[in-house]
Structures are given as C-alpha cells and as structure tokens.
Amino acid sequence: MASVQISEAEKVYIMHGVRDDLRVDGRGCEDYRHMEIETDVVSNTDGSAKVRMGHTDVLVGIKAELRRPRPNVPDEGYLEFFVDCSANATPEFEGRGGEELGVELSNTLYKVFNSHRSLDLRSLCVCPGEHCWVLYVDVLLLQCDGNLFDAMSIAIKAALFNTRIPKVRVLEDEEGGKEIELSDDPYDCLRLRVDNIPCIVTFCVFCLLVHVHQQVGHRHVVDATLQEKACSAASLLVAVTPRGAVTCVRKLGAGSLDPDSIFEMTETGKRVGKALHAPLMELLQKDESLGKKRQKVGFLA
Amino acid sequence: MAVDMRLPTVRKQISLAGSNSNADGKHLVVPGDVITSDTGFMRGHGTYMDDEKLTASVAGEVERVNKLICVRPLKTRYNGEVGDVIVGRITEVQQKRWKVETNSRLDSVLLLSSVNLPGGELRRRSAEDELTMRDYLQEGDLISAEVQSVFSDGALSLHTRSLKYGKLGQGVLVQVSPSLVKRQKTHFHNLPCGASIILGNNGFLWLYPTPGQQDEEEGGYYTSLELVPLSDREVISRLRNCLLALAAHKVLLYDTSVLYCYESSLLYQIKDILKPETMDEIVMTVYVLSYDTIWCRDRYQLCFGAAARPPALMGQQPGKFVGDQRRPSLPALNFIKGGGKRDSSRHGAQHCNVFEVHDSPVDPTAVLNT
C-alpha cells in the first residue's frame, strides 16, 4: 500500500482523536467519506463502475466470456478477479512494484465472493458440463488514499449490477453437435441479481491507553486514510452481505489483536456493512432509472 | 454512522472567456501554444523555439519584461526564495545535514550548523553532535524553517536559527499547491477562533493548538504529547476542512481568507464541509466577505454579475475598508500610531455580515442553481 511518513507527535494527535471520536477531518469513528459512484464508464466492457471515496479512485470492468465450467461444479459459472495497481496511484507501483499488493487484493476477493449465498452462479450456466459464463472482473486502482478494499467491493457490486450478459440459446442439430445462438436483439440481456453480494468493511485498529482504566485498549475506525493507517497496529477486514451474513474475516498487518475486540469488530462490521448496502442499491436504482438523461461524467470531474 | 453516496456531477466551471474585467487580463497558454512568431524576443523559462515560433512548454500565464518572454506555470513545484518560511518533513539523516522534503524539485538541505542546539548554547558543532543528530530530528519529523540560500542546482538551504522555528509538535498538516499561499509579512498566525496556523510558502500548512505559555529554553525540540482538548480539536478539524475547500476552489490563502471561511463554515457540521455543494456555498460566502480585496473583485463579478455588490457594501465606496492592500509598508508604520501593533485577526475591520437579513439580499447560491 502507498505509505506516508508521519511524525510521532502527529501519531499521538491522531490516536487521541480516535479515542475522542473526532478524527482529523471531523468524522466519527464509524463515518465514511463522501463517495461518488458512477456506472457504465467503460464502453467496451459488459459492465463497469467507478468509485471515488475521498482521494481513493477505483475502476472496475467486467467482461463475460463462454468457457468450460469447472469439473467439480459443472452447472455453475464462476468469477475471476484481477487487481491491477497502476503506477498512476503512486510511484511505488511502477513496474512490478504493485504486483504484490495486487495479488493480495485478488486473493482476498476470491475469498470474499467464494460463498454460495453471494451470487447465484447457476444463473451463469448455459449448458451443464460444456458451456458457462465466466465473469472476468478487472479492478484498476487509479488513486490510493486508504481503504482500498471497501472502495473495491462497492465498485464490484455496482459493476455487477450494471453487467448485461447477452442471452444465448443452445441448439442441437441432428448429429448431436451443439450450436450456440446469440439473440438478435442487442438489448436482450441477462442481468445479475446483486441482492446478496457482500461489501467489505475494513477496520483499522489502534492500540491506546484508555484513560478510564489506564490499560491498553483498542479502538477501531472505519474508512481510514493513509495517515490513520500509518498509526494503526493492524486492520481487520469483514465482508458482510445485506442480510448480515459474514462471508470472510481477515486480518491484515503485523500487529496483534485482542480476541474480544475481534468479536466486537465483527459485530460492528455487520451493522456498518448492512447500512452500506441500502443507500448503494438505492443509488444504483436511481442511476438506472435516469436512463438516457444520465449525465456522463467519466474521468473529467 | 453516516454514509453519503451520490452520483458524480460535472463541476460548474466559471468561464473566464468574454468577460469585461479580464479584457486586459492574463494571457493564459497551454503547452504547445504559440506565444508569438516575432523573432525579436528572448525566450525565458517555460518556453522553447519551435520552427522560429516561440512556444509555451508549460501551462500558465505569459509574462513579458521588455524583450524577455517567459511563462509562469499555474501549478508547479515550490521554487524557493531567500527568506521564505517553509514547513518540511525530514526524509534522511546524513552526515552533518538533514534532507528535508519541501514539495520542490530537489530535497532541501538543513545543515547541522544551521540549527539551534538544545539549551541555546552557542558553540562549534563537535563530532558528538553529529552522532546525536537523530536525537534532535528524526526521519518523519516536521519542522518549520526559513530559506537561508539557494544552491546552484536549485536546492534550498534552510535554517531554524530563530526561536519561532524548529520541530513541530501535535497538529495537522494540510498540503496544497504552493501558488495558493500568499506572500505576507508573517506566516505564523494565532487565529482568534482558537488555533494557530503556519502558512508555509511551499504549500504545506500546519495547524496546531495555540500553545499555552511560551517556554522556549529548549530551543524548540521538546514536543508536548499531552492530550489536546476536544474544543481545540474541533477548531483544528474545521480549519483543515476549510483549507481544503479553499484550495479546491483555488482561493488565495492568507489569514483573513482562512478566517472568513471558518466563520462561514460554522453553519455546517465539520464532516459536511467537504461535500461539493457545501464547499461551493462556503466559498461563495468568502467571496462576498472579501469583496474589497483585489483578488476577489474579479471572481465576485464572475459569480454574481458585473453590477452586483455585496449587500452591506451597497451605496458605500469600495476600498473604505481595511483590506490587505491597505496594510502599510514597514517604513510607513512609524508614522501611523499603533499601526505596527495591529494583529492579524483584523477583527476591528467592518466586514459584511452575510448572516444578517438585508432588504435586497443577493443569494450566493442562486448562481449555482441557474
């Protein structure tokens, strides 16, 4: 992750602020930064979305292709994730510098979406055992200002909502060979049900003296900036579906966490994650209902 | 907990083309624009010769001094001048010097002989001082310093040889473009709202709680790690968001504009200041309050129309108020009673209070809605 240098006094100031629930930019510990979400930004993909959260900028493009299904689950399609940390974000990502972070992010996404409850993979099946839709989800990091996972998961959800997969039919001819016929109408598409797709909530954990008991306590914040991340001990990632089910819990970073605080953070994560989905779906529905009147902003703003 | 999601909108651009107040105004160019085909001119910084035509290589304003044409870029790295106050971060500790990052093309240099020793001793620096450099300033520390000289390659040499410079303690750093910081007599301000600010010429602005009493025998190396009270934190967070709002609208930053912005932001919650529509409203109010200053006149007229005047100033002559251009220069201070003791808050000046109800109000947000 892009790192910032920070002095001891600044660290102390930030940590005291977290303790008093007033962060440097005036947010509380559970407040997100202002987000701007736009779908359908890349024209040659089947679905795309761009999310801007503070200075963090993430672009997701989804392409659907027909492939053979996996041997152990012949009646399901699947998703493939690839995260590209572009050198636009920070000079550290130049060349192969961003590869390590990209691999870590992709692996986490695989884990998060690896649940049957998140996406109905059976709807991606065309012909069991022979053809299925594979969704290649490509994530491009344009700018890094902390909280990459949350921005990525929101962008992926928005892009999946925006994805339009062409409807195909499998025709059998006399010799038993199968042919795939594409529907004539270009707007005849299959839309995915994104109701149960999880969103990631990342908690940054700070170790500080809680003055009531004069012992080391933990405080966590949601949507940390790079400066806050530099002062934190570790991060906990919780992926939550709209119904409150947790699909993945992962610890990032080198510090140690208290088991009680992990449990507490998972509970908070469920609450915060559930509260993220409702405004997101509302916004996506509104975006869709605007139709042709939608103002395309793209990369100009 | 609050989540604010929205669809992005194109920022309304206030166009500068075709307005009367800019008729004799700036000649703006982008890289590749031909400035002149006349061969009689000497080319300065920011230009190059392309087939006998003088072409700009940076985006900025054309400046002409007799026969010399140069282009001053609008957004650039910090170019230091002797005497500038800067805020910088230590990146390296080397032999007898520290390397300081100041948002310029090269890292600036802070020599060991240019800092005050703790305890205020005046002696030659010994080998021991060299070995204990890291005790004074480490990598990542923030300092305020003054530019002593400029090396031939453009790197700056800094010094902290006064008690007001030195290592910075608890506070918040805000980074903006260097061209937005106005050159003033003093860059250290104790704002009346309850916090202090250092407006570094290099675009690094430091906000910190006003120190209680001045105990500077340490020479500026002792940093207090005590808890900053919540009220001070609120002021500092609000100021930070105000600075970012002003920087986003390319408003010149100096103590008065920051103060006006702070006052007009009191209507909103701290975390709401950074929303685009709130930023627009706050900056519009700053334009109204700063109407009497030179930099603001053009922008005000662009926003509200050429004939508009702010409500309280209607019927009064502009320029009667104490604006920045009225501040007397140093020799003149001797002839003005109490002129030198004027503090930077300028609370004595009558400024338009937009929160009062006037008979014929000018609605700042009406421009945004049209």
What does it look like?
Chain B: Belongs to the RRP4 family. Chain B: It is found in: Cytoplasm; Nucleus, Nucleolus. The complex is a heterodimer of chains A (301) and B (370). Chain A has 301 residues and is of the alpha+beta class. Chain A has helices spanning 8-19, 99-112, 148-162, 226-231, 259-290, and strands at 35-39, 47-53, 56-67, 78-85, 125-127, 131-143, 164-166, 168-172, 178-182, 189-191, 199-210, 215-222, 234-240, 246-252. In chain A, the strands form 4 sheets. In chain A, strands 1, 2, 3, 4, 5 and 6 form a 6-stranded mixed sheet that branches. A 4-stranded antiparallel sheet of chain A has the order 12-11-13-14, with helices on both faces. In chain A, helix 3 runs parallel beside helix 5 (259-290). In chain A, 43% of the residues are buried. Chain B has helices spanning 127-131, 133-136, 230-248, 255-265, 276-289, 294-304, 330-333, 366-369; strands spanning 5-6, 28-29, 34-36, 42-43, 47-50, 53-56, 60-65, 68-73, 85-94, 97-101, 108-115, 142-150, 156-160, 166-167, 172-175, 188-190, 195-199, 204-209. Chain A binds chain B through residues 5-10, 12-13, 16-17, 20, 22-28, 30-38, 52, 222, 271-272, 275-276, 279-280, 283, 286-287, 294-295, 297, 300-301, and chain B through 1-11, 89, 91, 138-142, 168-173, 223, 225, 227-228, 230, 233-234, 237-238, 240-241, 269-271, 273-276.
Nearest-integer average pLDDT of chain A: 87
H/E series of chain B, N to C?
EEEEEEEEEEEHHEEEEEEEHHHHHH
In terms of per-residue confidence, which ranges of chain A show pLDDT below 50 for 5 or more consecutive residues? none
Quote the beta fraction of chain A.
25-35%
Summed over residues and divided by their number, the pLDDT of chain B gives a mean of 79
SS element count, helices of chain B: 8
Radius of gyration of chain B: 23 Å
Q: Which assembly state applies to the chains in this document?
A: heterodimer
Percent strand of chain B equals 15-25%
Uncertain runs of chain B with pLDDT below 50, 5 residues or more?
Answer: 15-23, 313-362, 364-370
Q: Count the E strands of chain B.
A: 18
C-alpha Rg of chain A, in Å?
A: 21 Å
According to CATH, the homologous superfamily of the largest domain in chain B is Nucleic acid-binding proteins
